[in-house]
Amino acid sequence: MRQPFTETSGIARHWGFEDLAANGPVQRLTLFTGVPVCLVTGYAETRELLAHPDVVRSPLDGPHRDTMMDDLINRTERHMLGANPPDHTRLRKLVTAAFTRRRIDALEPRIREIAAGLLDEMASAGDPVDLVNAYSYPLPITVICELIGIPAVRREDFRQWSSVFVNASMHTAEEYIEATTLMLDFVHELITQKQAAPTDDLLSGLIAARDGGDRLSEDELTSMIFLLLAAGHETTVSLITNGVHALLRHPDQLELLKAEPYRLPAAVEELLRYDGPLQAAIPYISQAPIEIAGTRIEAGEVIVFALLPANRDPRKVERPDELDITRPDSAHLAFGHGIHHCLGAPLARLEGRIALGMLFERFPGLRLAEPDRDPLRTPGLLMNAIRELPVHL
Question: How far apart (Å, rounded) are the C-alpha atoms in residues 155 and 141?
Fold first, then answer.
């Protein structure tokens, strides 16, 4: 059976999820990876289960985990996304102390400066321009690397490594382990440098973070940087690219946004709902039997939350397949829910607002170079990423 996760067409992907959702909001399915799971496609069911105390992250659900050495596992999985209470509570408290709203808000002038420079480069580039490589990718990778304290000369390396991490199910174990080892070796070197000579960046803040006498261990530091680099830009790349693509496919909504730019924050929320950056959340596991939507999830079953259909659940959203930036409440699950709700959501929203606002202000006539083609998307369990998006300025 062909599954939406492996579709390279965005249209086919959304249709495939719609077909699956028609079977019920909770159902059993064997993934393309061969793993049997409970697939959750309903909005209410996703919210309920993500907040359920018996639904937890499992250390057994990572791709290629059975081939990784214990040292690699310890250095990549000691972060909030892979932890459950009380470890999760402790880690999130320490990281939140460094990842403050003040630090994020202070980034706005620099994000605008980076975006302006990229738009200048686009203006002088050949036509058409690939929006992904020219704008959607370099903006968030520059921001997260500067935030953490990663030298500019290593950013292309991080792009290649993180692409392997977030699309792990589509890579071999050898490719995954090689990328992991290279990245971890560099992060270890960087931590050593920051411990000796702290600077005003997030990594130095994480090293210095304290909660009483508690602090992050080196494995926890390494795992957090590993997570922030992978999750901290790949999702924002897709937020920007998918958002631009959706607006260009809906010229009435784009014209409304250009005429009434105050709608930009609401537009970003609607774009996250309509075609978000993630197909699914990282898998969870049930610790005890759970009855929901007429289905009994047994203890030990793997649960996959399909975020794309949950965000288009007609029981929650009127006209779910329509893009409408005037919706009074574009409730969505693009950043998850519950204790694992994305800590970087404020940064992603800020980058999305700046990226979209400045792009259409600079190039009001922006249009798709291939309007009759559905751009290719990356197959895999997690990401809903457009590979390239050629545009005319």
Answer: 7
pLDDT at residue 4, as a whole number: 93
Parallel, antiparallel or unpaired: strands 284-286 and 55-57: antiparallel
- Residue 64: is its pLDDT beyond 50? no
Question: How many degrees, rounded to 5, is the angle at CA 381 between CA 379 and CA 386?
Answer: 40
Q: Which residues does 343 contact at the CB level (< 8 Å), separation at least 6?
A: 80, 92, 95, 96, 99
DSSP state string for 223-264? HHHHHHHHHHHHHHHHHHHHHHHHHHH-HHHHHHHHH-GGGH
pLDDT of residue 1: 57
Mean pLDDT of the chain: 87
Other CB atoms within a 10 A radius of the CB of residue 88 amount to 18
Task: Report pTM.
Answer: 0.89
Partnered with residue 286 across adjacent β-strands are 55
Residue 126 belongs to what domain range? 4-392
Give me the mean pLDDT over the 166-171 stretch. Answer: 66
Helix boundaries (H) for the chain: 10-21, 43-50, 70-76, 87-98, 101-105, 108-124, 131, 138-148, 155-166, 173-196, 202-208, 218-249, 251-259, 264-274, 307-310, 345-362
CB–CB of 21/42 below 8 Å? Answer: yes
- Asked if the model's pLDDT at residue 73 lies above 60, the reply is no
Confidence grade of residue 70 (pLDDT, cut at 50, 70, 90): low
Token pair in block for residue 74: 């310890």
How far is it, in rounded angstroms, from Cα 223 to Cα 238? Answer: 23
Higher pLDDT, 156 or 371: 371
Q: What angle (nearest 5°) sits at the alpha carbon of residue 283, between those of residues 282 and 285?
A: 145
- Helix crossing, 345-362 with 138-148: angle to 10°? 140
**CATH value at residue 317:** 1.10.630.10
How far is 298 from 285, CA to CA, in rounded Å?
A: 10
State yes or no: pLDDT of 167 exceeds 90.
Answer: no
Tokens of 272: 């996250």
Dihedral of CA 208/214/219/223: which sign?
negative
Distance CA 155, CA 171 (A): 21
The two beta strands, 295-297 and 129-130, are unpaired
Q: What share of residues in the chain are helix, strand, coil (percent, to 5)?
A: 55, 10, 35
Total domain count, the chain: 1
